[in-house]
Write a structure and sequence with these properties.
The complex is a heterodimer of chains A (654) and B (260). Chain A has 654 residues and is α+β, with helices and mostly antiparallel strands. Chain A contains 17 helices and 19 strands. The N terminus of chain A is likely disordered. In chain B, α2 packs antiparallel against α6, α3 runs antiparallel to α5 and α6 packs across α8. With 260 residues, chain B is of the alpha+beta class. In chain B, 34% of the residues lie in helices and 13% in strands. Classes of the chains: A alpha+beta (654), B alpha+beta (260). The structure holds flavin-adenine dinucleotide (FAD), iron/sulfur cluster and FE2/S2 (inorganic) cluster (FES).
C-alpha cells in the first residue's frame, strides 16, 4: 500500500460527538425576531474598532462587505477576480424567490419555508430555512431600491413567474440575467463603501490560508496574483463567501475559476465540512462535444415545458433523428411517468437520461445525450410562437453546437450545477472555528439535500445583507478592547512561509502532465462514481482510484514559470490539490450515507419505482467532517435534524 | 453552417507574448489543428497544453464564465475587439467562424487606460474607479421601502435594462481609436438615470462619473466603433443621454448647492 492510501480508513469512521446548531428556542415564526433582540450589540462608535475580513465578493460577499461597511466596521474584502463584478453569481439566469405574494396566489413566508424544507428532502435545519423565507421579502426591496431592473408588468409593478415546479409565482427575474443584475446591485453598493473608505478592496488576491490563534480565527494569508507577493491580514473576524465546489467534477456549469480552496483550507484549520456528497445535477445542459471541452452550458429548464425527450428504441442506433420513425422512438419519461412526463424533477430527469445513455441508446456523435424535440410544439403553435418563448435559448444552442433546433431536436445531458454541501455553520453562520463565518454557497446552507430553483441567489443575499451583519456583532461584542493579532506574530509569519513553500514545491516538480490534465482525470472519477447515481462498489473504487491519481499528480505535474508573476498554472495547481482531498471526502460521505436523499442517489436505496428512498430513522442528520491531519481519516460528526413544523413525506411522480 | 457536422481545420495563430507590463512584447506563431466545434478559447487551451508539453510557459489569457456574461474575457482577434462575430464575447466565439488555412492574429485589448499585465491579460481596473465615483444608488441595507411602492413605467424599466446589460468587458474602449470609455460610463449613467430610484443623485452621479472617466480615458469623437464591438450591443443613444445630462448637471449641481 502506498503512502497516499494511508488516508483511507481501515476501520469504519469514528463517530464524533454530536454537534449543536445553537438554534434559539421558541416558536419558529418568532425565533429570528427574538434572537435579534437577545443578541449583544456593538454600539456605533465601537464598530470602528473592529476589523472584519470578507473573502469573496460574489452575491454573498459583496452584500456582506457593503452592509458591514455601512454599519461602520472596518472591512477588508478580497477576491481573486480583477473586479467584484466578475464573480460566478453573475451567471445565474432564472431568478430569485421572494415571498412577497404580489400575485395574490396564496404565497407566504410559511409556504416558502415549507417548500424549501420539502424540496431539500428534509435534510436542512428548519430554523435557518424559516429565517431565509422571512428575509426574502427584504431582499427584493433592497435590490429594487438599488436600481436592479426586475421585470415589470404594464402597470409598472414587479412581475413574477413560477419556477422549479413551485405551485405559486414567487420568482422575481431580470430577463435571463437575474444573477448579473443582482450582482451589479451588490457590487455597486460595495463600490460605494470602497469610495467612502469603509471597505478596503483587494482584487486579484487569493486567500490561501486561514490563520487561527488560540482556537480563534484571526486573519488570512493572501497571494497577490500579479506580483506573487504573499501577505498577512489580521482581523477580529473572518467571513468566507467563496462559493461552491462544483468544479471538482472538472466539467460543470460553474465558471472556470470556481474552486474549493478557501473553504478547504479553513477545513484543514479545523472548520467542519458538512454533507460534501450533496451535489446537484441540472438535467438540461449541452452535452460534451470533444476531449478539450472546458465547461458545460446550462439551457433553461423551462424548455421542458414544450420539448419532448426521447431516444431511439434500439441500441447503437446510428441514424439521424429525422431517419428514426415515430414508432421506433422511446419517449421514456412520458412512458415511465405518465402524470408528470417531461416535467419530472431535476434529479429524476437526470438519472433517466443517464440510464438510457448507459444502455447505448444515447444520441449525437458521441452518443452522450438525449433528444429534446420541439417538432410537436412547432407543429402545434408555429415556429414563431416557439421563437417568442425560447428564441434566445435556441440561438445560444445553435451558437455552441452549430445545429438548428428549429430543424432538428436539441441534444441535452445532465451536468453538475450546484453544491449543497459546504462548511458547517451554526444558526449565527459561524463555523466550528470561533470568529470564522461562512456564507452563500460556501456554507452547507439551507438547501438540505437538494436546492430549489431561484433559491441560491436568495440565500446568498439573505446571508450577506440581512443575517451576518446582525449575528457577527454578537461575537464581536465580547472582543471589545482587544486588538487584532499583529501580523508579525509567529502564527502569521509561519503561515506565510508555508504558503511560499507550497508555491515553490509545485514549480520544482517539473513532471510531464499539466494541472488541467489531472483535473480532467479527477473529474472523470468523481463524475463516474460520485455523480448522478452512487453505489457502494463505485464509491469504493473512487476511494482507491483518487489517492492513486493524487499521488501521481503530486509527483508528476508540470508547472512552469515563476511564483513572482501572473502564473495561471500555479494558481490552478493549489486548487486542484484541494479538489483531490475534497473528492475523497465526498466519496466517504456518500458511502456512509446509506440512504438516498435529494441529489444523493444510492442505487442500493430506491423504491420499487426507482425513486430515492430516504432513511429518516438513521440519517435525519447533517454529517459534518473534522480534519485530523494529512493521511488520517476525518471524523464524522452529526447534527441531528428535527422536524416540528413540516411533516416528512415520500415523493412520487407517477 | 452545416448542421451537426464538425470538421477539423488548420489555422495559423499569431499570438502576442509579453512577459510583463514593462517588457517589450512580440508575436509568436503557432499552427493549430482544431475541430470547428471547439470554442476559440478552447483552441487557446489546446495551445497551452502543447506549450506546457514542450516546456514553454503557457499563454496568459483571462476568462471565467465562458458564457458571455462575466466580462472577464476579451482579446483583439484580427484587429477586432472580441473577434468577427457581432454581439459575441470572445468566449462565445466558435471555430466554425473560421476556415481552413486562416491566419488569426490575437492581441491584448490595447488602450492607454488598460496596461498589459502579461501576454493577453490587461488591467481594466479603471472601469471600477468610474463605478466607485458614483455608479450606484445610495441606499443602505435595510433602508429600502416596499418594492412596489414606486411603479416604474415598463418602457423606462426596459430601457434601463438595455443599459444595465453591460458586462464591463472594456471592448468599447479597446475598439475606440481614442481609447474612450464613453459607452461603458453612459451605460451605467443611463441605467440609473432612467429609473425613479436614481433621480436623487442623477446630477452629482453624472458629474462625478464623467470626470473620473476623463482622468483615465481619452475623449469621444463619435466614431461609433464602441457600439459595433460591444457584445451586449449597448446603444450609442446612451452616450447622447450622458452628454445631455452632463451639461445639465453642471448647471443643476450649482443650483442645488444654492449658487444660482
Ligand atoms: C449556470 C448557473 C445558473 C444559476 N442560476 C441560478 C438561478 O437562476 N437562481 C438561483 O437562485 N441560483 C442560480 N445559480 C446558483 C447561484 O448562482 C450561486 O449559487 C450563487 O450565485 C453563489 O453565490 P456566492 O456569492 O456564494 O459565490 P460566488 O458568486 O461563486 O462568489 C465567490 C467569490 O469568492 C471569491 N473567491 C473564492 N475563493 C477565493 C479565494 N481563495 N481567495 C479570494 N477570493 C476567493 C471569488 O473571487 C468570488 O468573488 C446558478 C448557478 C449556475 C452555475
Ligand atoms: S459597453 Fe459593451 S463593450 Fe463596453 S464594457 Fe459594456 S459590454 Fe463591454
Ligand atoms: S468569460 Fe465571461 S464573458 Fe467571456
Amino acid at each position: 500500500m502506498n503512502e497516499m492510501n494511508a488516508s483511507m480508513p481501515e476501520t469504519p469512521t469514528t463517530a464524533g460527538p454530536t454537534l449543536d446548531g445553537r438554534v434559539p428556542d421558541g416558536d419558529i415564526a418568532t425565533k429570528w425576531e427574538n434572537h435579534k433582540f437577545s443578541m449583544k450589540l456593538v454600539n456605533p462608535n465601537n464598530k470602528r474598532k473592529f476589523e472584519v475580513i470578507v473573502v469573496g465578493t460574489g452575491l454573498a460577499g459583496a452584500s456582506a462587505a457593503a452592509s458591514l461597511g455601512e454599519l461602520g466596521y472596518r472591512v477588508k474584502a478580497f477576491t481573486y477576480h480583477d473586479s467584484p463584478r466578475r464573480a460566478h453569481s453573475i451567471a445565474a439566469q432564472g431568478g430569485i424567490n421572494g415571498a412577497k405574494n404580489y400575485t395574490n396566489d396564496g404565497d407566504s413566508v410559511h409556504r416558502l419555508f415549507y417548500d424549501t424544507v420539502k424540496g431539500g428532502d428534509y435534510r436542512s435545519r428548519e430554523a435557518n430555512v424559516h429565517r431565509l423565507a422571512e428575509v426574502s421579502v427584504n431582499i427584493i426591496d433592497q435590490a429594487t431600491a438599488q436600481g436592479v431592473p426586475f421585470a415589470r408588468d404594464y402597470g409598472g409593478l414587479l412581475d413574477n413567474r413560477s419556477f422549479g415546479g413551485a405551485q405559486v409565482s414567487r420568482t422575481f427575474y431580470a430577463r435571463g440575467q437575474t444573477g448579473q443584475q443582482l450582482l451589479v446591485g451588490a457590487y455597486s453598493a460595495l463600490m460605494r463603501q470602497v469610495g467612502a473608505g469603509s471597505v478596503e478592496l483587494h482584487t486579484r488576491s487569493e486567500m490561501l490560508k486561514v490563520v487561527v490563534k488560540d482556537g480563534r480565527a484571526c486573519g488570512i494569508i493572501v497571494r497577490d496574483l500579479l506580483s506573487g507577493e504573499v501577505t498577512s491580514h489580521s482581523a477580529h473576524a473572518v467571513v468566507l463567501a467563496t462559493g461552491g465546489y462544483g468544479n471538482v467534477y472538472f466539467l460543470s456549469t460553474n465558471a472556470m475559476m470556481c474552486n474549493v480552496t478557501a473553504a478547504w483550507r479553513a477545513h484543514r484549520e479545523g472548520a467542519f465540512f458538512a454533507n460534501p456528497c450533496f451535489t446537484q445535477i441540472h438535467p438540461t445542459c449541452i452535452p460534451v462535444s470533444d476531449d478539450f471541452q472546458s465547461k458545460l452550458t446550462l439551457m433553461s429548464e423551462s424548455l421542458r415545458n414544450d420539448g419532448r425527450i426521447w431516444v431511439p428504441e434500439g441500441f447503437d442506433d446510428n441514424r439521424s433523428a429525422a431517419e428514426i420513425p415515430e414508432a421506433e422512438r422511446d419517449y421514456y419519461l412520458e412512458r415511465k411517468y405518465p402524470a408528470f412526463g417531461n416535467l419530472v424533477p431535476r434529479d429524476v430527469a437526470s438519472r433517466n437520461a443517464k440510464t438510457v445513455c448507459d444502455e447505448s441508446r444515447g444520441v449525437g456523435p458521441l452518443k452522450n445525450g438525449v433528444y429534446l424535440d420541439f417538432a410537436a410544439a412547432i407543429a402545434r403553435d408555429g415556429a414563431e410562437a416557439i421563437s417568442a418563448k425560447y428564441g434566445n435559448l435556441f440561438d445560444m444552442y445553435q451558437r455552441i453546437t452549430g445545429e438548428n433546433p428549429y430543424e432538428q431536436p436539441m441534444r441535452i445531458y445532465p451536468a453538475i450545477h450546484y453544491t449543497m454541501g459546504g462548511l458547517w455553520v451554526d444558526y449565527n453562520l459561524m463555523t466550528t472555528i470561533p470568529s470564522l463565518y461562512a456564507i452563500g454557497e460556501a456554507n452547507f446552507s439551507d438547501h438540505g439535500a437538494n436546492r430549489l430553483g431561484a433559491s441560491a441567489l436568495m440565500q446568498g443575499l439573505a446571508d450577506g445583507y440581512f443575517v451576518l451583519p446582525y449575528t457577527i456583532g454578537d461575537n464581536l461584542a465580547d472582543m471589545l478592547g482587544q486588538q487584532a493579532v499583529p501580523t508579525d506574530d509567529p502564527v502569521f509569519t509561519n503561515a506565510v512561509a508555508d504558503v511560499q513553500n507550497e508555491q515553490q514545491r509545485w514549480l520544482s516538480i517539473n513532471g510531464t502532465h499539466s494541472v488541467d490534465y489531472y483535473h480532467r482525470e479527477l473529474g472523470r472519477i468523481v463524475w463516474d462514481y460520485i455523480g448522478m447515481a452512487r453505489s457502494k462498489v463505485g464509491l469504493e473504487k473512487a476511494l482507491s482510484e483518487i489517492p492513486t491519481l493524487r499521488e501521481e499528480f503530486q509527483t508528476n505535474v508540470r508547472v512552469l514559470g515563476s511564483a513572482k508573476t501572473l502564473n495561471q498554472s500555479l494558481e490552478k495547481a493549489g486548487r486542484v490539490a484541494d479538489f483531490f482531498e475534497l473528492a475523497e471526502l465526498m466519496a466517504r460521505d456518500a458511502l456512509e450515507r446509506e440512504e438516498s436523499a435529494g441529489g444523493h442517489f444510492r442505487e442500493e436505496h430506491q423504491t420499487d419505482d426507482g425513486e430515492a428512498q430516504r432513511d429518516d430513522e438513521n440519517f435525519s442528520h447533517v454529517a459534518a467532517w473534522e480534519w485530523n491531519g494529512v493521511g488520517t481519516a476525518q471524523t464524522r460528526h452529526r447534527e441531528e435534524l428535527t422536524f416540528e413544523n413540516v411533516a416528512l413525506s415520500q415523493r412520487s411522480y407517477k | 453552417m452545416s448542421s451537426g457536422h464538425s470538421e477539423t481545420i488548420n489555422v495559423t495563430l499569431k499570438v502576442w507574448r509579453q512577459e510583463g507590463p514593462n517588457e517589450n512584447g512580440g508575436f509568436e506563431v503557432h499552427q493549430q489543428t482544431i475541430s470547428t466545434d471547439a470554442s476559440f478559447l478552447e483552441m487557446l487551451d489546446q495551445l497551452n497544453e502543447q506549450l506546457n508539453e514542450v516546456g514553454t510557459e503557457p499563454l496568459a489569457f483571462e476568462s471565467d464564465c465562458r458564457e458571455g456574461i462575466c466580462g472577464t474575457c476579451g482579446v483583439m482577434i484580427n484587429g477586432r475587439a472580441h473577434g468577427p462575430q457581432t454581439a459575441t464575447a470572445t468566449c462565445q466565439l466558435h471555430m466554425r467562424e473560421f476556415h481552413d488555412g486562416d491566419e488569426i492574429v490575437v492581441e491584448p485589448f490595447r488602450a492607454a487606460g488598460f496596461p498589459v499585465i502579461r501576454d493577453l491579460a490587461v488591467d481594466r481596473s479603471p472601469l471600477d474607479r468610474i463605478i466607485e465615483s458614483g455608479g450606484y444608488i445610495s441606499v443602505n441595507t435595510g433602508a429600502a421601502s416596499d418594492a412596489n411602492l414606486t411603479p416604474v413605467p415598463k418602457a423606462a424599466a426596459d430601457m434601463a435594462f438595455d443599459a444595465a446589460a453591460c458586462i464591463g468587458c472594456g471592448a468599447c474602449v479597446a475598439a475606440c481609436p481614442n481609447s474612450a470609455a464613453q459607452l461603458f460610463t453612459s451605460a451605467k449613467i443611463g441605467h440609473l438615470g432612467l429609473l425613479p430610484q436614481g433621480q436623487a443623485e442623477r446630477w452629482s452621479r453624472t458629474e462625478n462619473m464623467v470626470e473620473t472617466m476623463e482622468e483615465f480615458f481619452g475623449s469621444c469623437t463619435n466614431h461609433g466603433e464602441c457600439s459595433a464591438a460591444c457584445p451586449k450591443e449597448i446603444s450609442l443613444d446612451f452616450i447622447a443621454f450622458m452628454n445631455r445630462d452632463y451639461v445639465k448637471a453642471k448647471i443643476k449641481n450649482r443650483a442645488l448647492a444654492g449658487q444660482h
